[in-house]
């Protein structure tokens, strides 16, 4: 219940109460929450106050509205730490979810100019271009296009990249992945991305580019990916001094 004497604004207390109900399972992802009228009766506040709380939660992607149907609880975002150099398969496993992929492109090509430079390729060298939609428990999370020098993975097959690429290069080929540089930018889904990620056109997307090096400093992959911004948030610990 709300504390009318608290210095915390009423709408804020409602937000916190609704969040609490989501985290203790009273409201699960996909559930409709009570209407503004019902909530205003429940909390004994004006509908304006309730609307403010709901709008804030919608803006935070915690709730979403569907015209004519009501307001629903969104899937919780995956919190992705920015420290560890992990694979998609590992990330999902760590959260108790199952990773899978749909291969939408697999070929050997001349690298685009920027990739050619980043992978420090020699003239005439080709790369494997691997395009995958990545799923967590069968829900689309990201589209990834990986470029890997053919010289490093000459026997790569569609079958291999339908599973974990990192597992193959470390487990089977015996390479050690050492470090990566990653860049994250905001963008919106174009029509192909919205179809593959199953989100409305122009939805918020996190564009992530990673360049990964093996132990000897050898560039191993450049990956360009589009992550659903409604399913992901990135978290990092930062230190002062
Ligand atoms: C993450 C990274 C990619 C990397 C991939 C490997 O998604 N953003 O850069 O290629 O993991 O994942 P997996 O080993 O599951 O194929």
Architecture overview:
The structure is a single chain. With 241 residues, the chain is an alpha+beta fold. The chain has two domains: 10-73, Arc Repressor Mutant, subunit A; 78-235, Chorismate lyase-like (Chorismate lyase), CATH 3.40.1410. The chain has helices spanning 10-23, 36-43, 47-59, 88-94, 113-118, 158-161, 165-172, 191-197, and strands at 63-66, 70-73, 78-81, 99-110, 126-136, 139-149, 177-188, 204-214, 219-228, 232-235. Strand 5 (126-136) and strand 6 (139-149) form a beta hairpin. Helix 1 packs across helix 3 (47-59) and helix 2 (36-43) packs across helix 3. The longest helix has 14 residues, at 10-23. The protein is elongated, with a radius of gyration of 22 Å. The two termini are 42 Å apart. It binds 2-amino-2-deoxy-6-O-phosphono-alpha-D-glucopyranose.
Question: Topology, pairings included?
Answer:
Layout lengths: L9 H14 L12 H8 L3 H13 L3 E4 L3 E4 L4 E4 L6 H7 L4 E12 L2 H6 L7 E11 L2 E11 L8 H4 L3 H8 L4 E12 L2 H7 L6 E11 L4 E10 L3 E4 L6
Helix pairs in contact: 1-3, 2-3
2-amino-2-deoxy-6-O-phosphono-alpha-D-glucopyranose binds next to helix 4, strand 6, helix 7 and strand 9.
Provide the descriptors you would attach to this structure in a database record:
28% helix, Arc Repressor Mutant, subunit A, 6-stranded antiparallel beta sheet, 241 residues, Chorismate lyase, alpha+beta, two-stranded antiparallel sheet
